[in-house]
Amino acid sequence: MSSLLxxxxxxxxxxxxxxxxxxxRPRLLHTPWVSAxxxxxxxxxxxxxxxxxNTMEAMENAVAQRADLLELDCQxxxxxxxxxxxxxSLSRQSGVNRDVGSLDFEELPLYKEELEVYFSPGHxxxxxxxxxxxxxxxxxxxxxxxxxxxxxxQNEELIRKIAGLVRxxxxxxxxxxxxxxxxxxxxxxxANPEMPTAFTISRGFWVLLLYYLGLLPFIxxxxxxLISFLPTIINRTYFPFSxxxxxxxxxxxxxxxxxxxxxxxHLEQRGVQVVFWCLNEESDFEVAFRLGATGxxxxxxxxxxxxxxxxxxxxxxx
Length: 318
Prior knowledge:
Keywords: Cytoplasm, Endoplasmic reticulum, Hydrolase, Lipid metabolism, Membrane, Metal-binding, Transmembrane, Transmembrane helix. GO terms for molecular function: metal ion binding; phosphatidylcholine lysophospholipase activity; phosphoric diester hydrolase activity. Strands 1, 2, 3, 6, 7, 8, 9 and 10 form an eight-stranded mixed β-sheet that branches. Strands 4-5 form a two-stranded antiparallel sheet. With 318 residues, the protein is of the alpha/beta class. 39% of the residues are buried. The protein contains eleven helices and ten strands. It has helices at 2-24, 56-64, 91-94, 135-141, 156-168, 182-191, 201-213, 244-258, 261-269, 282-291, 301-311, and strands spanning 41-44, 69-76, 82-84, 114-116, 124-126, 147-150, 175-178, 225-229, 273-277, 295-298.
């Protein structure tokens, strides 16, 4: 036993020192990704706290606030039109108990006159524009605006059509594939491998595991974006579970796991841009940027623009 420890302890110590060394200096092992844009201000659902979500009016408002990224979700209508909609069902946003996929584009109902802001409970957005929009119209209206397109389900026709629109409008470098599910992301990457990808949930957990095992500096990372919730919003503006006890536990555990400045700095140095969502209060903006995040996704682009203008560019990661 003593002889085993005699060899194991020095080997373990050497491994730990090497891991820490390369965690802080990843470019000695990896060439960092070079991004076509820097998403400091992202507009969640187009800026759903200031105008009705996912409408052209909301996106125009976000662009007026010099947003760097529009965060959108897509669904497919019965007649094969890719539309910008967070929900598969029209019930919450339009009051109609039908799915988007059960209607043709021209049959889609208007949004309600007001919609509650999901990450600011008790607050409601209004707007004069209540129409659902086609993804193609968004690409035409904002040809050089970076957009994160989230696909929630394994709808191969939807994925194929999004990929085709991105190619047609020559947006491969500025349109991000996003999905929570690795099975969906696999199909997205196959449909258009030129588009940058964000971490799925399982891939995010894998990176955390590698980080705590000390292996992350030695593993390649194909993703270019980590778009993650900020743990401090759990049980305040984000309630992932119906049980308050589970929300409290999730807040504590995720804060301990995710809010590691050394992890974020390592990813940033490797060209993986870290963006936290969905932050609607200045105190949360401050937490995110102090951690070293590239940017923030918010429902209130005007508030985040004011914060950024008042605080200047973030200090570069050391």
